[in-house]
Amino acid sequence: MFIFETISNTLLYALGFYLLLNCCYLLFFSLAGHRKLNQVKQEIKSKRKFCVLIPAYKENEVVLQSALDAVQHQYSGDADIFVIADGLEPATIQQLKNFGSGVIEVQFERSTKGKALARALDTLPSDSYDVAVVLDVDNIMGKDFLEEVNHAFDSGYKVVQAHRTAKNMDTAFAFLDACNEEINNHIYRKGHSAIGMSSALIGSGMAFEFKYLKKLLAGIGETVGEDKELDFRIAKDKVKICYLNHVFVYDEKIENAQVFTQQRTRWIASQMEFLKKYAWEGIVQLFKFRNLEFFNKVVQAFLVPRVLLIGVLGLFFLSSFVIPFGPPVAFWAVLFGMLTAALLISLPGRMYKDKRLWDAILRLPYALICMCLALFMIKKAKASFMPTPHSAKAISTNGNN
Fold this sequence. Notes:
Blueprint: H1 2-32, E1 50-57, H2 60-71, E2 79-86, H3 90-98, E3 102-106, H4 113-123, E4 131-134, E5 140-141, H5 145-154, E6 159-166, H6 172-194, E7 206-209, H7 210-216, H8 226-237, E8 241-251, H9 257-289, H10 292-302, H11 306-319, H12 329-346, H13 349-352, H14 356-362, H15 364-375, H16 378-383
Parallel strand pairs: 1-2, 1-4, 2-3, 6-8
Antiparallel strand pairs: 4-7, 5-8, 6-7
Helix pairs in contact: 1-6, 1-12, 6-14, 8-9, 9-10, 9-15, 11-12, 11-15
């Protein structure tokens, strides 16, 4: 009995310490995100030539709307739009060409966004463009997007991440997903930038020096998380990622549980992939090369996904009333309070004014079940691209804070 009690106490206290680190990390950067960000210089030194890349995997309807909007986007310099067509119908390709979009056709045995981008950059002449912008097939650039990104490159940045925000919040699940997006923006982008660290990339609404992106994508392979791979490669190069909190790109949010589960499966698989790949290198980068940014990316991969973290802390809080081992009830209550505070102060004020917030909160238990299901589907994500399906949505809300 003594041995069982000792082992149980040791395991529960070790787990409690790990979860405490999770909560401390989130709360610290939640608070940091309320610091004022330094603005990029507004003097225009040059008008860079942009290529806007839109990878499209069998999304015939959505790509027509997003590509047309990109073609019509106002920029005082030169910008070319290219749809990377993977599995698009011939009629869709012809329509894209008719309204002025370039089309780069690709085909792979196993499609991934990273491979599509790499192929497109190999196709385009390296000396023709200064900056490459990456959008998802459902993304819409906000007003002055390219102008503001050009300003950031005038300030000396090689990589820029814009503020991705919801273009639709017409269901409770979509609103919940929009809240999650804004919390991510606050913690992993604004919070990090506020203390002088790099923003995390988010997969779209990203801009890179053209030749640098081509270098980053070399040998990208079949990863399901190309943005995370780029994050690690940029951190290894010690290149700072600029976050433009006031520059928006609008993104379609998940509207139902099935798509939510599919998307989270891919995200969890990506997180586990990079944790396994870079965990040891993160320690080497920290102590041998003093590369805190790279180590921080590894720490992020160690964090429990937030919806799961809510469930785990709630479970241990309730079980601590009846289990006589491990940390006391007060410990789990404090952790749950820290996590709650981190999430609440990361949510933009406009979300609290929306009555749909309470409907979204009521969907949290359902979202937790979806996350649990996603854990059992990770092998499927490794064997399949598992793209998130989209529909042609108009912007129904603005993304201003």
